[in-house]
Specification:
Strand 3 (99-105) and strand 4 (111-117) form a beta hairpin. The protein is α+β, with helices and mostly antiparallel strands and 321 residues long. Helices cover 29% and strands 28% of the residues. Strands 1, 2, 3, 4, 5, 6, 7, 8 and 9 form a nine-stranded mixed β-sheet that branches. It has a five-stranded mixed β-sheet with strand order 10-11-16-13-14, with helices on both faces. It has two domains: 2-189, Histidine kinase-like ATPase, C-terminal domain (Heat Shock Protein 90, 2-Layer Sandwich), CATH 3.30.565.10; 205-318, Ribosomal Protein S5, domain 2. The N and C termini lie far apart (60 Å). The protein has helices at residues 2-12, 16-29, 61-64, 90-95, 145-148, 154-171, 195-202, 252-262, 301-318, and strands at 34-40, 46-51, 99-105, 111-117, 120-121, 125-126, 132-138, 176-181, 184-189, 211-218, 221-228, 233-234, 240-244, 247-249, 271-272, 274-279, 285-287, 296-298. The structure holds adenosine-5'-diphosphate and magnesium ion (MG). Adenosine-5'-diphosphate (ADP) binds at residues 22, 26-27, 29-30, 51, 53-56, 64, 70-72, 85-91, 133. This is DNA mismatch repair protein MutL.
């Protein structure tokens, strides 16, 4: 069983950022209003995610670490799943390659804490904590040297965590996010921000005054978000954020479409700042084919590409650029 977990862990947990993604998605699925993330040494030394969500009751604590145990079941079709996680693989995978301490309390119940060390769990013990859940991951891959040696410097592991946190926080401006690294506050965003304010807080304060709102619909596909004016650009494409049905994605088709829209408006080595949110009927898209990946497959890629190119062009031209 433990070997199975470790093999699966390689798919779900490649580096601190992939463990962090799973933990924050769990906090979002728990309908948290505020999520706090504290990283040590790029997440290699420690990852802590605290939330004020629904919590896990005493009886379900040990089960949460069992493979394929999930409290989130898709209603009928697997595409109709509306939580971020539903495979029940993340916690057991992380706990099979690290030390995990999970404390949780359901409102109106007592709090409990459980520790799992490289797959071996203790019995829950009482813990006095506010309602919600706190998960702390340390010693990632310490007992799996073959994986540990693929980790990069704390600095680049931190960069991957920061990029992920920006994307998750942009996707959910209704949720408050705190990010700390080695005791330093990186951002602290209140819940219920509007989307342009949230995106600007995570990219560049000046984006709000230098961008246009994108909002169009075609054949059931909705494209929204904000796009920086061609006069507001960057030397690297580090601030292009794309989301499909609320999930951050990195996809060649989508980035290519954005490039196409700005093609003759920007110098060759310049990149626009954009945060675009596509809403596509679930039957038209296959998101997160693999839990650790951020790829999408569209049934009609040309429709999506065309919408982004012409939608952005029209919005930019309307602004008189
Ligand atoms: P999945 O998210 O696919 O269900 P996980 O392994 O990530 O699987 O989590 C297992 C279960 O643990 C979840 O289904 C959920 O019931 C519970 N859980 C995990 N994290 C949290 C959290 N932060 N708040 C409440 N419940 C959680
Ligand atoms: Mg999960």
């Amino acid at each position: 069983e433990n070997l199975v977990n470790r093999i699966a862990a390689g798919e779900v947990v490649e580096r601190p950022a992939s463990a962090l993604k799973e933990l924050v998605e769990n906090a979002i699925d728990a309908r948290s209003r505020r999520i706090a993330v504290r990283l040590m040494g790029g997440g290699i030394d420690g990852i802590e995610v605290s939330d004020d969500g629904c919590g896990i009751s005493r009886n379900e604590l040990p089960i949460a670490f069992e493979r394929h145990a999930t409290s989130k079941l898709p209603d009928e079709a697997i595409e109709a799943v509306n939580t971020l996680g539903f495979r029940g693989e993340a916690l057991p995978s992380i706990a099979s390659v690290a030390q995990v301490r999970l404390e949780s309390r359901v409102a109106g119940e007592d709090g409990w804490s459980i520790s799992v060390d490289n797959g071996r769990a203790t019995d829950p013990v009482p813990a006095a904590i506010p309602h919600g859940t706190r998960v702390r991951v340390t010693g990632l891959f310490e007992r799996v040297p073959a994986r540990r040696k693929f980790l990069r410097s704390a600095r680049s592991e931190y960069a991957a965590c920061l990029d992920l946190m920006r994307r998750l926080a942009m996707a959910r401006p209704d949720v408050g996010f705190l990010l700390e690294h080695d005791g330093r506050t990186i951002f602290n965003l209140p819940p219920d921000q509007d989307r342009p304010t949230r995106v600007a807080a995570l990219t560049d304060r000046d984006l709000k005054a230098n961008s246009i709102a994108v909002d169009l619909e075609r054949d059931g596909v909705v494209l929204g978000g904000i796009a920086g004016l061609p006069t507001f650009h960057r030397g690297i494409a580090d601030h292009q954020y794309l989301f499909v049905n609320g999930r951050p994605v990195k996809d060649r088709l989508l980035t290519g479409a954005v490039r196409g829209a700005y093609a003759d408006l920007l110098a060759r080595d310049r990149h626009a700042v954009v945060a675009l949110f596509l809403e596509v009927p679930p039957s038209e898209v296959d998101v997160n084919v693999h839990p650790a990946k951020t790829e999408v497959r569209f049934r009609d890629p040309q429709l999506v590409r065309g919408m982004i190119v012409s939608g952005l062009r029209q919005a930019i031209e309307r602004e008189g650029h």
